[in-house]
Amino acid sequence: MTESDEQEIQEARLANRFDIRRLIGAVFLIYGLVLTALGAFGSSHVKNKAAGLNIDLWAGIGMLVFAALMIAWALMRPVEPDPPETRGQGSGRIRRAPAT
User: Fold this and answer.
1) Residues with Cβ < 8 Å from 27, sequence gap 6 or more?
2) Across 39-48, 61-70, 77-86, least confident range
3) Other C-beta atoms within 10 Å of 21: how many?
4) Phi, psi at residue 31, to the nearest 5°?
5) Which of 8, 23, 31, 32 has a beta carbon 3.0–4.6 Å from 81's, enabling a disulfide?
């Protein structure tokens, strides 16, 4: 393993730590926990404001499910360095404008 390979692995690990999917999952996890706690332990007056539906509890549960999906997605499909044979070639999706 060369030094550039080790550097790419380190960069991929750093990119995984700050992956947007993990950050979104963490934010939804925090808000979901707060709303679920408010829905479970809040006053009955606030719980029944929305036509008898405990909206804080249901929104919190929905946020927790979404957070679990985002974090699971980030863990199942982590950012990986490009294979050595394709390095420097790019994805091929962006085309350069023709030279004029």
Assistant:
1) 67
2) 77-86
3) 18
4) -65, -35
5) 8
Take residue 54 and report the two structure tokens written for it.
């405990």
Q: Write out the two tokens for 8.
A: 């790419």
| Distance, CA of 77 to CA of 5 (rounded, Å) | 20
The per-residue pLDDT for 89 is 64
Could you give the CA distance from residue 46 to residue 42 in angstroms, rounded to a whole number? 7
Type of residue at 50: A
Radius of gyration of the chain (CA): 22
Buried b (16+ CB within 10 A) or exposed e, 48-85: eeeeeebebbebbeebbebbeebbeebeeeeeebeeee
For residue 25, with 0-12 CB atoms within 10 Å meaning exposed, 13-18 middle and 19 or more buried, which class applies? Answer: buried
